[in-house]
Amino acid sequence: MSIPTRAAVVESGGAPFTLCDVRLAEPGPHEAIVRMAAAGLCHTDLGVASGALPFPLPGVLGHEGAGVVETVGPAVTGVAPGDHVVLSFTSCGGCRDCRGGHPAYCATWLPLNLIGGRRADGTGTVSRAGEDLGGHFFGQSSFAERALVDERSLVKVDPEVPLASIAPLGCGVQTGVGAVWNVLRPDAGSTVVVLGAGAVGLSAVMAAALTPATEIVAVDRFAERLSLARELGATHTVDASGTDLAGALAGITGGRGADGVVETTGDVGVLRRGVDALAARGTLVVVGAPPFGTEVALDVNGLLGGKRIVGLTLGDAETQAFVPALVRLVKEGRLPLHRLISTYPFTDIDRAVRDMRAGRAIKPVLTF
């Protein structure tokens, strides 16, 4: 039996989100139905809704969900009805990277999460008037009052922590934190530079503040975001709109350059300046995603001092261990995620989209 619910549907590229009645497929052996409590809005959702990525539309997006498990398939063992869960990406569980603890690099990550719109076996998860819609987005499609979720997208969390306060952990926050903890891994006395002070960038700033790095530099064009970055742990800020980045970083680092850079903007010009600002043996983590096919020119000789450029998906996190650790940090006040969040009723999803695009909201979270 299919399950009725209400979802925000994008009819075509560039169309707004429209609330309408849909039906979820019956859970398979490794799936669950989750009653949504909250869902973060991410730039990836907006990119797909704009038609910039080849996800099948009409469709239901949403990939930073949090809620309560209602029913589970017969083979689900990690959660039970009544459990509080954060929803993250899905993966096959059987390829080399999944088995090695790197499910964000699953061999089937793109079709399972971003562009397929269906389960791995080709069947749909959400329909309207008997016609399948694009669904299974990050194994969840959580812009709905209920979601059909892959078991590998489910992370059981502490029920004492309000779900609206931790929904963004499933994507944006774990990406920024993972860039610092899982890739840069700052040594004592090192310098970390974060290019872009949005939700991912500010998550990286908060993560860096929990490491032995002594200089944490936030770079952005908006003064209010730079001010917030300082409150969240940045030791220095650089206004990118009126400052020479290379000169500013040279001054902060005594001419040595940055040990680690997190690039969150998706602007290849900013990426190039970040690479040029690296110290010998420094690492730049590419997080921001421009349109498919975008290329960047680099000075090859400038890389010969041991510089590394590393692409990153979802923080290279193993979610079953990583997300609960972040939840504990939020609960204890050591990861003040609430400073980034603005909440909106689910019915106001289009206002949340407008505020995010205009820069009025860093991390909108829809509540149900």
Which short descriptors sum up this protein?
368 residues; alpha/beta; 6-stranded parallel sheet; 10 helices
Task: Report on the architecture of this protein.
With 368 residues, the chain is of the alpha/beta class. 24% of the residues lie in helices and 26% in strands. The protein contains 10 helices and 18 strands. Strands 3, 5, 6, 9, 10, 17 and 18 form a 7-stranded mixed β-sheet that branches. Strands 13-12-11-14-15-16 form a 6-stranded parallel β-sheet, with helices on both faces. The longest helix is centred in the middle third of the chain and has 13 residues. It starts with a strand and ends with a strand. The model has no long low-confidence stretch (mean pLDDT 96).
Q: Main beta sheet, described?
A: 7 strands, mixed
Low-confidence stretches: none
Radius of gyration: 20 Å
Strand proportion, as a percent range, falls in: 25-35%
- Strand elements, count: 18
The overall pLDDT, averaged over residues, is: 96
How far is the first residue's CA from the last residue's CA? 24 Å
Instruction: Report the principal-axis shape.
Output: globular
- Kindly state the percentage of residues in helix: 10-25%
Number of helices: 10
Pairing-aware structural class of the strands and helices?
Answer: alpha/beta
